[in-house]
Amino acid sequence: MCPVDAFREGPNFLVIDPEECIDCTLCVAECPVDAIVPEDELTAAQREYLALNATLAKAWPRIVEAHPALPDANTWAKVTEKRKWLETSAGVADATTDLPGTAP
């Protein structure tokens, strides 16, 4: 999907490495939940993800082959404010329990 393999995969989140991305926008149409937005179309609330992508892309492994959508992708597509559910291995983690669709 990405011609320069700019995607990185964390425990429950994907990021795009801004140093690798060539802004071709091929990924925008491919995303099953419309989670990818060109930088010039980001809302003020989404802007924090630019720095987050840059930081996490340095710590997470490159994705080199397409994966099917996660089984709960449609559930997550309806969740706003996903930042608090982000799990990382780079020390940026927030809450990691009580995820939508899971029992408490």
UniProtKB/TrEMBL annotation:
Keyword entries, A-Z: 3Fe-4S, 4Fe-4S, Electron transport, Iron, Iron-sulfur, Metal-binding, Repeat, Transport
Pfam (any one): DUF3470
Cofactor: [3Fe-4S] cluster; [4Fe-4S] cluster
Highest taxon above the source species: Bacteria
GO MF, one annotated term: 4 iron, 4 sulfur cluster binding
Ranges where the 4Fe-4S ferredoxin-type domain occurs: 12-41
Xref: InterPro entries: 4Fe4S_Fe-S-bd, 4Fe4S_Fe_S_CS, Fd_C
Function, as annotated: Ferredoxins are iron-sulfur proteins that transfer electrons in a wide variety of metabolic reactions.
Record's protein name: Ferredoxin
Origin species: Thauera phenylacetica B4P
